[in-house]
Specification:
Aspartate Aminotransferase, domain 2; Aspartate Aminotransferase, domain 1; 7-stranded mixed β-sheet
Length: 360
């Protein structure tokens, strides 16, 4: 029986995609082999890779003058790759600190000799807010401005794109990429781990403006050098072929759903349903400021912490899994990525109301 999987990542994948991958697992395109067994340099896989990139470019409306890379190491590798490619040792860079993942990016940049300017720090609100649009303290000499568009753990999402003028804007979109349309041309670089809205863990997508290539520090490892990876079509080394294949199937699935405008409408409906249930109750609480609540990750607490374990056990029995909050946040968290159907959220809300009736 398929459950409703609310995991923050690795997250649920569309059932249609899983079924297609299952059907093709031992005989992909009549080759008599799995896609995991064919050469990444063979014509069949090269065509698969090109189709996946073409679909992603169309979905995100990526303008000319950008390279799209399919890389290993997830988003965490990009915490190092970004400063290595865009900032010389000792150069300044602006970072917006809105939670756990932006904090990790800041730490990594500092380790690599970047003079980090924390242009906004939401620690005082316990990371339940994002900075006001006009409150950013940007350094005039910054090599780039980095922010995390959606914090998976804290459940905050930027409702706007920061205006950084001529300074390249770098965005970690790991947990909300493909959840709705974006203006890709406003960014110098976008990166995202795959395991939320794209595919299996271990793959990262990097979308980088071509004028930012060629700036990597001399000691940058080849596998982290965007220029080298772009020159080799993301195949300087053996890429994560199965994850790339699944990503292509997911892009095709999004097309069939109506594209990113349809995804956005669906995701807003799911989030509004769950937040509405929480706000209408005295038993559940979401700590995030309303204007920056995430559509993808909804943390919430129960009226009494001792009810957490019974809630999770009963939810699991009801086919509602992975609702436990992150270990550093506690409480609950429901992740509502693209693959989560509205029926899953309806089932969760009905369960929450019944649990409150019994224990409130």
């Amino acid at each position: 029986m398929r459950v409703f999987n609310f995991s923050a990542g690795p997250a649920a994948l569309p059932l249609e995609v899983l079924e297609q991958a299952r059907d093709e697992l031992t005989d992909w395109q009549g080759s008599g082999m799995s896609v995991m067994e064919v050469s990444h340099r063979g014509q069949a896989f090269v065509e698969l890779a090109e189709r996946a990139e073409t679909r992603l470019r169309a979905l995100l409306a990526i303008p000319a003058g950008y390279k799209v890379l399919f890389l290993q190491g997830g988003a965490t590798a990009q915490f190092a790759a970004v400063p290595l490619n865009l900032a010389a040792a000792g150069a300044a860079a602006d970072y917006l600190n809105t939670g756990s993942w932006s904090g990790k990016a800041i730490e990594e940049a500092g380790r690599l000799g970047v003079k980090v300017n924390v242009a906004a720090d939401e620690q005082a609100s316990h990371y339940t807010t994002v900075p006001a649009r006009d409150a950013l303290r940007l350094a005039p000499d910054a090599a780039y401005v980095h922010y995390t568009t959606n914090e998976t753990i804290g459940g905050v999402e930027f409702p706007y794109v920061p205006d950084t003028g001529a300074v390249p804007l770098v965005a970690d979109m790991s947990s909300n990429i493909l959840s709705g349309p974006i203006e890709a041309g406003r960014f110098g670089l976008i990166y995202a781990g795959a395991q939320k809205n794209i595919g299996p863990a271990g793959l990262a997508i990097v979308i980088v403006r071509e004028d930012l290539l060629g700036r990597a520090r001399p000691a940058t490892p080849s596998i982290l050098d965007y220029t080298q990876m772009a020159a080799h079509g993301s195949m300087l080394n053996t890429p994560p072929t199965f994850a790339w294949y699944i990503a292509g199937l997911v892009f095709e699935w999004i097309e069939r759903q109506g594209g990113l405008a349809a995804m956005e409408a669906r995701n807003r409906a799911k989030a509004e349903l769950l937040y509405g249930a929480i706000d209408a109750s005295d038993f559940y609480r979401n700590p995030v400021a309303r204007e920056c609540r995430s559509r993808m990750n909804v943390p919430f607490t129960l009226a009494r912490p001792e009810l957490d374990a019974p809630f999770l056990a009963a939810a699991h029995s009801a086919g509602l899994t992975h609702l436990k909050g992150h270990r550093c946040a506690g409480g609950m968290r429901a992740s509502l990525y693209n693959a989560m159907p509205i029926g899953g959220v309806e089932a969760l809300v009905a369960f929450m109301r019944e649990f409150e009736r019994r224990h409130g």
